[in-house]
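Hmm, how's this folded?
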Amino acid sequence: MSLFKQFSKEYSLFLAVITFLGITYFEHALVQTTAGNLIGFGTLFVVIIYAAMSVAHHAEKLAERFGEPYGTLILTMSAVIVEIVIIVIMMMHAENPELARDTIYSAVMLDINGLLGLAAIIGGIKHGEQPYNVDSSNSYLSMLLVAIGIAMVLPEFIDPVYHHRFMWFNVVVFVFLYIIFTRVQLLSHKYFFEYNGDSENRDSETVCEKEESCELQHEINAWYHAFNLVISIIVIGVLAEILSLFMGNTLETFGLPLAIGAVGVAVISAAPELITAVRAAVDDRMQTVINIALGASLATVLLTIPAVIMASYYLEMELNLSLTPVQTMMIALTLLVSMVNFNDGETNVLEGFLHFILFIVFVFLLFI
């Protein structure tokens, strides 16, 4: 009975179902006018963001149940699955070979410069300098540098005749890299991605079974939250298919570049991470923010790229993952500033501000 009461409070799920039925019924009338397209696009976007907040909630509960770094891994994997689903759906409707590239690029900009920058600013204002384990940032950034360089920069220097073969080579390499990195993160070097503070705090945390909070962790129903997590992702995918139609019409009507649609996909997929990261920054848990922001960027590159390569092959769609010169410069600046800022084990307002400025530049460049 308690589970039924819990499920009755899944307002985002019920709203999503009602929205789906309503939009589907009025879809043909809405797409005929500019106002109708705006109403459909705005309604679906808000409902999908609300559903993404539900993903964040259930992922957080699973994080409490299983602890770090499993919690952030569940959250980032959920976000990446949402992103893959939406990208593939929009690729099928838009038939744009650069859509996946623009979305992956936008996701990296949003996660590192937008999400991490904003969290560092908020956390810095409230707490000053916020510590984290520098081994985690070094690990993430080195992996990002290699992965982005291989998949999105190197193709520009390879004969186009071999691009198809090289993309399938990337599928194998990236899956292998993610398996190795996940093993390192969860087993052999799990302590890289944890920050326990001083020795006194570590000692108090090791006696977890004596604390009531640890008993509460075992009371969290993992199956319930996992089920709702999956259902929320499915609902987002269904609504995203309708959203792609309204988004395409809206961008075409106002003469806006499709890259803005890619940013919309990145915002939807990053919404759960953004909410969780800001909460963590306010609670002075910068290690969680680092794991979410950099971990999400890495998962986006290592998992989304193989997924869209395979999807484009089986759906017989063109795919171009090579970054433009402007995108290459922005990625290079982002990674260079990250390597400088995240090498001392502490974040502050200035570091967050620098990354947020890069995010503002990224948004500005979308319109020129």
Q: What stands out?
A: The mean pLDDT is 85. DSSP finds 14 helices and two strands in the chain. The chain has one domain: 2-365.
